[in-house]
Amino acid sequence: MHLTLEFGGGLELLLGKSTKLHKVDVQPVDDEGKATMKGLLSWVKSNLIKERPEMFIKGDSVRPGVLVLINDCDWELCGGLDAELEDKDVVVFISTLHGG
């Protein structure tokens, strides 16, 4: 499954390459053979996050303060962790937490 992942608000600094846009080919499959956000988050943690994963992930989900959009729609409206992904979806992660 081809997905486009975008990281912003400082989250891109946690990745191996501090690049905001990543075109990836992943197979995050759950017990029913469906690609879900829960599986994608696990894949991102294992394959893209290179430092301070606690700034992105808390338990099985994203940390509070991380906005997640699936094709420009809030992931909570799509089903949250159970949201099913399809080929060529665009998933955006934006941190709303900033120091100051």
Topology record:
Blueprint: E1 2-8, E2 21-25, H1 37-47, E3 57-58, E4 61-62, E5 66-70, E6 73-74, H2 75-78, E7 90-95
Parallel strand pairs: 1-7
Antiparallel strand pairs: 1-2, 3-4, 5-6, 5-7
Number of strand segments: 7
Unreliable residue runs = none
Which quaternary structure do these chains form?
Answer: single chain
Share of helical residues:
10-25%
Q: Biggest β-sheet, characterized?
A: 5 strands, mixed
Q: Beta-strand level of the residues, as a percent range?
A: 25-35%
Strand order of the largest sheet: 2-1-7-5-6
| Outline type | globular
Alpha-carbon Rg, integer = 13 Å
Global structural class: alpha+beta
| SSE pattern, N- to C-terminal | EEHEEEEHE
How far is the first residue's CA from the last residue's CA?
39 Å
Mean pLDDT: 90
Total of DSSP H or I helical runs spanning 4+ residues:
2
Labels describing this entry:
single chain; 100 residues; alpha+beta; five-stranded mixed beta sheet; two-stranded antiparallel sheet; 15% helix; globular
